[in-house]
Amino acid sequence: MKVAIGGPLKVAFRPWVEGLENIPAEGPAILASNHLSFSDSFFLPAVLDRKVTFIAKAEYFTTPGVKGRLTAAFFKGVGQLPVDRSGARGAGEAAIRSGLDVLERGELFGIYPEGTRSPDGRLYRGKPGGLARVALASGAPVIPVAMIDTEKIQPPGKVMPKLMRPGIRIGEPLDFSRYQGMEHDRFVLRAVTDEVMYEIMKLSGQEYVDIYATAAKRRISEAAKAEKAARAAAAKAEQDEHGVGDMAKQVRVMRMSVEQPLWRALTGYRVLTMLYAVGLFATQYDDYDRPGIAIAYYVVLCLWTFATLPRVQNAAACTKRFLAVDLAIAVTGIVLTPLVVNDHHIDSGGPTLPSIWTAGSVLAFAIKGGWRWAALASTPVAAANLFERGHPARDTVHNVILVWVASIAIGYVVEVARASERTLARALEIEAATRERERLARDIHDSVLQVLAMVQRRGAVMGGEAAELGRMAGEQEVALRTLVSGGLTSVSRVSRDAAQGAVVHVIDVERDDDGPDETGPLDLRALLAPYASAKVSLVEPGAPVPLPRPAARELAAAVGAALDNVHRHAGEHARAWILVEDEPDEVIVTVRDDGPGIPEGRLAQAEGEGRLGVALSIRGRLRELGGSAELISPPGQGTEVELKVPKVSRGKAGQR
Question: CA 383 to CA 400: how far, in whole Å?
């Protein structure tokens, strides 16, 4: 299969390669590459003399039907292994086992640390669970690989590929033997993955974004939906402006969804009532003293009705001039009635020449301009009917009032519908603007915050004036982070490290005033961000980590208690690290310090002395949340506190 595919690929696209000498002639190795296109898994093996086995999503191997079987045969033929990316329990371990099996056979194992294709050509944060664990468990060297321009060969939506030369740049092998046996240490896995991603970034020249590619795809999809909603809102606003504010313009603008059915109903009503009026004339022909005048009027009425059907299909076409002429034809027919019929027809309350067709003219005014226009149009119709009868008979007054009330009511309903449509359009605009603000906040998080954090760290290391600059950068970094995460934080305590670059404002995790929505989830990052300081490093996901409000507060309080223990017992020069991991079914927060550790039996002794900080402030809180708190502290090697909270809290705090 490699010969059948690799040969034509090299002939047709002529990919260029740099660093081919970094691929070992034999023995296991891991090829860690950026992922720009589905063709990456074809171009890389095509330029190598050795077999490369990649992992591919299981859907390629399990799709039913003839096409599915052909697809599965193809991916098996090019040496790809299925991996379950659904997030099911055990799926990740199976993928790691598959990679280790390939390496144990002395072959090359290819992996994309990003986990999925880049949605926009940028390089995204690597996932530590796959690459780093396989590398540390196998001891195989990791060779960074950069695919260049493969996404331009067949962009999304293009059926035919573009003939161009993609590139492959292979870096020098990375040796992580110094971490051998530490494949279950989250901090080590993160460090190994970041080092590999840094080398890939140098090889590819891509812009690096410190969020996962899956989160970026979700954000791009949300932004596209928001843009679509904004375009729809703008179109509706323009339609409303043309339909009401500029009636002289004859622009074919479709009216709003609630109003348009009324125009369609009016179109049908005018045709049916015109036929009804002609039918009445035919059945009551003997009542007409001058049938010639009546026939002439009905000819005009029929021609006018059919010729003006497009005029009553939308508000833009229904102009003032048309409405005036239409109403004049109706009133003329009413006034002509006494001249063409006998006295018996009038005294018995017989219909006028236009009959109920007249109501269509009045309704057109109502739909076009609202209830005021309807009242204005009903007045000459009422006067003409009273003139036709000669006196205010009961049935005439009844019909006049009926037309008046019905037209005004319909006009009022139309005005309410228009106001509702404008409100909806405004709401859509606000929603689109809100999504855009959220997108800008995410961009700030991915760029400005990273720079401020780096300035803070470097300033603390350099000392002097740079330390003061780092301190101010740290304050602004946390203030900006909390702002883009959901609002300003309240002040509840002053960090002990303020003089050395710490951020002095922190979240009061026990406060009850959470704004208007007191039942929605909280972003755990916003509660933990104020703990970051010159001596406390915070590593968090790029995307929000939502938890129920009580659970988020209790977990943040437990982290604060752990940091208080670091300040109190590990010494004033001790450093601490906070790692936040958002797993599918739980959130894990790890607090580690580089202090002297806790002597064996010290915790039990402290509990016996009545000092219950760890037992109540940490373990007790996590137990109420249905989670767990595990404390590991080898003497002389620091202390690590691992806090696990399920996404759906099973404890008391989650039910408050």
Answer: 9
In this prediction, residue 272 carries a pLDDT of: 93
Query: How many C-beta atoms lie closer than 10 Å to residue 90's C-beta?
Result: 9
| Residues spanned by the domain of 263 | 244-422
Q: Are residues 251 and 188 in the same domain?
A: no
- 641: DSSP letter: E
CATH number of the domain where residue 75 is located? 3.40.1130.10
DSSP conformation class of 490:
P
Q: What is the dihedral of CA 418, 423, 429, 433, to 10 degrees?
A: 170
Count the neighbouring beta carbons within 10 Å of the beta carbon of residue 496.
16
CA distance 323 to 368: 9
Kindly list the averaged pLDDT for each block of 10 residues, start to end, along the chain of length 656.
Answer: 61 88 93 89 86 76 65 64 58 77 91 89 88 90 94 71 87 90 86 93 92 87 84 71 42 51 89 91 88 90 90 86 92 89 82 89 90 89 83 77 86 86 81 73 64 78 81 76 53 38 39 50 90 86 88 90 83 86 91 84 61 67 88 84 81 47
Distance, CA of 281 to CA of 284 (rounded, Å): 5
Cβ(109)–Cβ(143) under 8 Å? no
Q: Specify the amino acid at residue 180.
A: Q
The amino acid occupying position 499 is: A
- Indicate if 254 and 180 belong to the same structural domain: no
Q: How far apart are CA 104 and CA 99, in angstroms?
A: 9
Name beta bridge partners: 591.
Answer: 578, 641
Phi, psi values for residue 148, rounded to 5°: -115, 125
Look up residue 618 and give its DSSP letter.
I
Q: How far from the centroid of its chain's Cα atoms is residue 402's Cα?
A: 51
Give me the torsion for CA of 30, 34, 39, 44, rounded to 10°: -40
- Based on the fold, state whether residues 50 and 179 are members of the same structural domain: yes
C-alpha span between 248 and 321 (Å, rounded) = 9
Same domain, 248 and 205: no
Query: 368: which strand partners?
Result: none
Give a three-class secondary structure readout of 223-254. Answer: HHHHHHHHHHHHHHHHHHHHHHHCCCCCCCCC
Amino acid at the residue 99: G
Tokens of 528: 């933990």
